[in-house]
Amino acid sequence: DCELTQALNTMRVARCVATSLRVVIEAVAFCPQAPALVPEVGRGLDVELNEVRTATRTAIQHAARRGDELIVIGSAGTTRRHDPTARGSFAGFGVPLSVPLGADDPGPPELPASLTVGAWLLRDALGPGCGASGWSVGWDSTAMTVSPDRSTVLVVVGDGSARLSEKAPGYLDARAAGREQLTLDALRSGAAFVPLDPSYPE
Length: 202
Description:
Number of strands: 7
């Protein structure tokens, strides 16, 4: 859940910046960053994932209607901004698929895995050319720069803990349940701050 924790904390910073710049964050859509949501990656999993895909598509569409500027937030090693032409690839999952963030014009292949999934989710929900920009969120998370006097929509992509049981992908970590609850409380309250702990295993 550290990926989602990072994104949550950056969203909190963004909200503070938005207040000082008279920027209105109109809506936030929280979405999973599982690569298997991409049909070419998650082959044979349609029965298990179609409901999640539909819910994610609906959440993004509902949020996007409420603002002028669309920003996608996802975890990475360092914090940086990505223009709409930035691209990501699923080649690491054995799929020769490249996805642009918010514009189909040629752009640098720089998106981390989280925003690559986010770019695909946006394209699935809104079609090509949605105009979204992005922010990678690292442990060095700093304030986001947003346009003043514009209504803004955030799409936050992240995952829960992969260490909640001995059969989990990351095996059992005794701290995982507590971290998971902190993240859930932050999502429910919309105001909580989840402390970042670089020593917490991903």
